[in-house]
Design brief:
By secondary structure, the protein is mostly helical. Helix 1 crosses helix 2. The longest helix has 29 residues. It is elongated and about 70 Å long. The two termini are 33 Å apart. The relative contact order is 0.14.
Length: 78
């Protein structure tokens, strides 16, 4: 018999997790981070507009959404 308690592939405490559905807490944090990111994204959008003298491809809301989408999962990462 072999010992499967340490370091096995079926270890429930392993580093890889299956897909988990986001909870309400995730959406609350996402919304808060999104609301805080909007003014900063708007300022960055105006700076890019003045610097490059043409409209950026993505608007300030898309930029804020992307930032919130990157930051929020990092908070819930084990």
């Amino acid at each position: 018999m072999s010992d499967h308690t340490v370091g096995g592939h079926d270890d429930s405490h392993g580093t890889s997790h299956g897909h988990r559905t986001p909870r309400a807490e995730f959406y609350v944090y996402f919304a808060l981070i999104f609301m805080v990111a909007i003014p900063f994204a708007a300022i960055a959008w105006v700076i890019a507009l003045v610097r490059d003298r043409h409209l950026p491809v993505h608007g300030p809301l898309a930029r804020a959404w992307r930032e919130a989408g990157a930051i929020t999962p990092a908070i819930f990462r084990p």
